[in-house]
């Protein structure tokens, strides 16, 4: 298939992205939105003169247009990738016969935070994820996977891959994290019982990844039930996946020690909050929330946790409080060498006892409500 001239492709992404941005700022009826929509449609129609359809695929951070990778991804392309990823889309196909009304609807659906992407007669959307093997999300954003347990196992594996690359000298694979978060958000839409996508810890060495994945699921579930959507929901997911990333800088002997930790070892273990925050604050392309949550997830609601930097009046951020609730719940329900597996209701009642001191009581109430509702739904 012949390539489009790069000038034309660049112009298309520029006009589409400007239409989307203006649409978020003003409304679909704004004159500048109309103008950029018209320009986009003209370019699309010119491109469709020589091709049956325009197929745009997003794989990792690359754009493939009609099977040809784009040589350069500029600011407009990067912004478009970001927008689409947040909607769970990694493929768009424009077909002959596209009208301005359809394009307008599509642009409006992408720019409005709460709205889902629908199907349009001449625009196809879907998630084509080459890295997830069995997992494929088709048109209409439905999940086609063998089982939800498999889904979470796959996400744990994926997180393990991201974590295995962690080094203070390398960039973090944020697109891998994005995929995990998007997959969970899509799962919530069809699965009433959140507990079915919480992974059991199969091997102790896998604990870090399993725990981080579970904390992300539980925190996004809490956040959604509190009315948090879109970008913030996504940012909470990413931050939760990374809340314990500082443990990657703690020695294995301490991390996997079976008996109780000596004072010095415990001090070192507690430093994972600081190490994580320091590491994440240097990484680009991450929510600003990520280092905050890494630093504060052991602060406690009554400010008695660690690290003890917060004594001068700084309270735990509400989103760190959400993560702290999920963190505690998952830690207790996982099999650790020094703990038995706790029953869900037993953990909930312990959390209620610790509400006000360790946890925000309102969050504990909400958490209890959603977990009990999930148990009933199973
Ligand atoms: Fe932690
Ligand atoms: Fe944790």
Structure description:
- It contains 15 helices and 7 strands.
- It has 378 residues and is of the alpha+beta class.
- The protein folds into 2 domains: 6-128, no CATH class; 145-377, Hypothetical protein af1432 (Orthogonal Bundle).
- The chain has a 5-stranded antiparallel beta sheet with strand order 3-2-1-4-5. The protein has a two-stranded antiparallel sheet with strand order 6-7.
- A hairpin with a 5-residue loop joins β6 (136-137) and β7.
- The longest helix has 20 residues, at 6-25.
- Mean pLDDT is 82; it is low at 128-146.
- One fe (ii) ion binds at residues 244, 272, 297-298.
Based on secondary structure, the structural category is alpha+beta
Question: What is the CATH architecture descriptor of the largest domain?
Answer: Orthogonal Bundle
- Would you list the SSEs in sequence order as H and E? HHEEEHEHEEEHHHHHHHHHHH
What is the CATH topology of the largest domain? Hypothetical protein af1432
The CATH H-level superfamily of the largest domain is Hypothetical protein af1432
Mean pLDDT: 82
Which residue ranges are poorly predicted, with pLDDT under 50 across at least 5 consecutive positions? 128-146
The 3D shape can be described as elongated
Our count of helices gives: 15
Instruction: Tell me the span between the first and last alpha carbons.
Output: 50 Å
| Number of E-type strands | 7
Query: What does the main sheet amount to?
Result: 5 strands, antiparallel
Strand order of the largest sheet: 3-2-1-4-5
What small-molecule ligands were found?
Answer: fe (ii) ion
Domain module tally: 2
CATH class of the largest domain: Mainly Alpha
């Amino acid at each position: 298939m012949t390539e489009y001239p790069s000038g034309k492709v660049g112009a298309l992404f520029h006009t589409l992205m400007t239409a989307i941005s203006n649409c978020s700022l003003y409304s679909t009826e704004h004159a500048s939105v109309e103008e950029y929509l018209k320009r986009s449609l003209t370019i699309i129609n010119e491109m469709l003169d020589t091709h049956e359809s325009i197929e745009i695929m997003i794989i990792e951070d690359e754009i493939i247009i009609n099977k040809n990778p784009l040589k350069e991804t500029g600011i407009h392309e990067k912004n478009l990738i970001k927008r689409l990823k947040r909607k769970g889309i990694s493929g768009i196909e424009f077909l002959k016969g596209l009208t301005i009304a359809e394009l307008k609807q599509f642009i409006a659906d992408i720019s409005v935070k709460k709205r889902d992407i629908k199907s349009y007669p001449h625009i196809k959307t879907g998630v084509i994820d080459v890295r997830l093997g069995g997992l494929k999300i088709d048109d209409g954003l439905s999940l086609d996977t063998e089982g939800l347990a498999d889904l979470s196992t796959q996400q744990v594996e994926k997180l393990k891959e991201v974590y295995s690359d962690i080094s203070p000298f390398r960039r973090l694979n944020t697109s891998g994290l994005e995929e995990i978060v998007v997959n969970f958000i899509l799962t919530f839409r069809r699965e009433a019982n959140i507990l079915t996508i919480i992974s059991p810890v199969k091997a102790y060495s896998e604990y870090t990844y399993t725990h981080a994945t579970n904390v992300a699921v539980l925190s996004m579930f809490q956040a959604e039930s509190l009315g948090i959507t879109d970008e913030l929901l996504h940012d909470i997911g990413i931050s939760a996946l990374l809340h314990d990333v500082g443990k990657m800088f703690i020695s294995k002997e301490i991390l996997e020690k079976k008996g109780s930790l000596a004072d010095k070892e415990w001090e070192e273990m507690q430093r994972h909050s600081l190490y994580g925050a320091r590491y994440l604050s240097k990484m680009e392309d991450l929510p600003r929330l990520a280092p905050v949550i890494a630093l504060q997830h052991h602060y406690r609601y009554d400010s008695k946790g660690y690290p003890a930097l917060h004594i001068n009046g700084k309270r735990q951020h509400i989103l760190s409080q959400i993560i702290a609730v999920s963190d505690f719940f998952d830690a207790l329900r996982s099999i650790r060498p020094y703990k038995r597996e706790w029953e869900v209701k037993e953990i909930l009642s312990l959390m209620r006892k610790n509400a006000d001191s360790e946890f925000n009581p309102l969050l504990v109430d909400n958490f209890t409500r959603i977990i009990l509702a999930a148990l009933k739904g199973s």
